[in-house]
Amino acid sequence: MAERLTKxxxxxxxxxxSAFFFVTFVALTLHSHYYMRTISTDEATLTEGxxxxxxxxxxxxxxxxxxxxxxxxxxAPELGNVWVRYGGRDDPEGARGALVAWMQSxxxxxxxxxxxxxxxxxxxxxxxxxxxxxxxxxxxxxxxPPNDAG
Amino acid sequence: xxxxxxxxxxWYFVCAMALFVVQVLIGALAATVYAVPNFLTGILPFNILxxxxxxxxxVWLLLGFFGSAYYLIPEEAERxxxxxxxxxxxxxxxxxxxxxxxxxxxxxxxEGREFLEQPLWVKIGIVIGALIFLYNVSLTVLKGRRTxxxxxxxxxxxxxAVFFLFAFYNPDNLAVDKLYWWYIVHLWVEGxxxxxxxxxxxxxxxxxxxxxREVVEKWLYAIVGLALFSGLLGTGHHYYWIGAPGYWQWIGxxxxxxxxxPFFAMVVFAxxxxxxxxxxxxxxxxxxxTLGTPxxxxxxxxxxxxMHTFSFVxxxxxxxxxxAAHGHLAFFGAYVMLNLSIISYAMPYLRGRAxxxxxxxxxxxxxxxxxxxxxxxxxxxxGVVQIHLQRVMGLTYMExxxxxxxxxxxxxxxxxxxVISVFMFVYAMFGPxxxxxxxxxxxxxxxxx
Lengths: 150, 449
Description:
Chain A is mostly helical. Chain A has five helices and two strands. Chain B has helices at 8-35, 46-77, 84-106, 120-143, 148-164, 174-209, 213-234, 247-257, 260-277, 284-307, 311-317, 321-350, 358-392, 397-403, 405-430. Chain B starts with 7 loop residues before the first helix and ends in a 19-residue tail after the last helix. Classes of the chains: A mainly alpha, B mainly alpha. Chains A and B meet through α1, α2, β1, β2 and α5 of A and α2, α6, α7, α8 and α12 of B.
């Protein structure tokens, strides 16, 4: 390494540069936080049902098979847009009914096909989860995923 | 071993290796479920397997970091660890938490954010353990000699603890939740963990090559500078599609593309120093791991990360098996191998022996590294096929997965070799000692020691 760069110069560049980039990062995060709460998500429709649904999603560790907005395990389908895939934009009641029926009918028992466990959710929990997935499908995600397959 | 309290590291390494075994065994079960979908149905569902696989990994890597700190800080600070009793108390708290969490998971007791599934009491235990640790090592360093290695190591370890606090913040708004979730996940593995990695690597290089400390420490600051300059704003590559503003596609693409730089610098650093040192350290197995770590980190974290980090690529690859491929080789190359390096280096001192079982350990290196590379290739091919069928052609997820069965079988095969090599490593380190001096190694004392 160049002889001109002394150890103390390298140290000062490290500390100074890191502090600069960290402050920049935090500032952009705060702007993104504001953007998410006002533009990309609809907090007016972030109802108690949606919040309870998020807890149902977490309590059952859905994310360790599925992905949501592309994050999670990759063992089961993407659910960020499952509401769209089930036709929820045109027929919300139909999509809700189909989601509930799907979860109640698991595991399918079909040989050589991945099995989703039966989580024995109550009607309330199933509806809350549907609320959460519906709300999530309306997050403005810069056009991701590329198609309905997720 | 120059300081009695370095022995603390021994028990951290023992516990780390125990969890390493759990991690790979459960990983093999999860890989089996991919290949044989009805396997374990109704007994242990996939989400629980994956939870144990990832959590055991994270905890054992952290135990390895703590053990590394307890091993190298006395030599760097030139004094014993402040309180061995607190160090063992910390280990006990973390192990009770880890075992409690694993048993709880199998019974369905868990939280549900990815990697943060630990119940609240375990999270609080982790924080208490971290506080004890930071108190103990910080005091040791402050009262002793301060070096660049301990400076960077402590900054990394403090960063780990501080960013973990975001685990207690779970916003109702899913997008905001994800925004700060990455403060833990990304700022750990692509931020402060790299500080730990670079400083431990620098310590090993000084010890094994005998190159002048001034030179090594200058490299160290340059490497960690590159890591944070690229890695902090590089977090943007996780903000493309979660409801964050569009400017992250620019910032994330540019800065995360540069995340390859610190890993490349580590490769150049390790090999330059090895060349400059030109001295034979008797522990050739540890030296092999130490040179292998930056190379595999460069490929796993650097190249495989670069491959899908640009937003216009990531738009198609996000959340596919390509991500899984990158995740596996990045964690292995950077952090698993780093821990195995320092364990290989430290264990002979901790057991009061000349370097032992070196041939077995070197076989372990080649088998484990090849198997992980093969696993990464199979998942990468699976991912590319998946992207085309699902994201371009628009086939449904489950239809596409059926097309990937061959890749999942090959991944299972390579995973079994990883499991075998992990047992070989544990046996080589903790099993009976066969002291045999290798032909190419001279027997006089190592340089710099």
